[in-house]
Amino acid sequence: MCHASLCTGAPLLVYDVSNNNQVSTLVPALELYIPLETYSVRFLSQTRLVAAIKKGFAVQGGFEMVDLVTAETQGLLDPDDPSPLDLAHKKVKPITVFRVDTVFLVCYNKHAFYIDRRGIRPLNKVVLRWTQPAHAFALHQPYILAFCDRGVEVWNIETGEMVQKIQGPYHLLNTPESGEKVLGLSLLSGEITEIVFHEHASLNS
């Protein structure tokens, strides 16, 4: 398993987990440098990660994919497909990317959409459009939680519909895997809480 550590303006450090005598330690495996201000990094597989690049970026769509074996980089979106590039215009901020089965859900502060392995947007996939700008996301299939300034929006990634709105600003504290709890810090009370959501909740809850 690999982990990544990033500081703005510093190299991207990739670690492997070494198990010795039932003790797990992080061992430096690779050092990369992304010469642009980066919002986030996320592993797409054991050998590939994607970085969200600040606007003003040279990378089309704001996402740069890095091959950890060859250290080669390329844009995540296909530059010859106008459909995703029209959605990834300069007025949106790239946030993160999630792998969903055989496709990827590309998340920006104003919306999210699917692309395939070639960076092309499938014609039959939905576009999720948040009601307010989002700054963080947690995927909990079949839902994605969009953390916004005034609350958390819960969207069904299969239908493209918002199924719940949780009032109050929260800061996402973890990057949960499928089935794990989503933890948030309430910016009003200062308390750490589990973000509880369900499909048939009232949108005014």
From TrEMBL:
<feature type="domain" description="CNH">
    <location>
        <begin position="1"/>
        <end position="181"/>
    </location>
</feature>
<protein>
    <submittedName>
        <fullName>CNH-domain-containing protein</fullName>
    </submittedName>
</protein>
<dbReference type="InterPro" id="IPR001180">
    <property type="entry name" value="CNH_dom"/>
</dbReference>
<dbReference type="InterPro" id="IPR052233">
    <property type="entry name" value="Rho-type_GEFs"/>
</dbReference>
<keyword id="KW-0344">Guanine-nucleotide releasing factor</keyword>
<dbReference type="Pfam" id="PF00780">
    <property type="entry name" value="CNH"/>
</dbReference>
<dbReference type="GO" id="GO:0005085">
    <property type="term" value="F:guanyl-nucleotide exchange factor activity"/>
</dbReference>
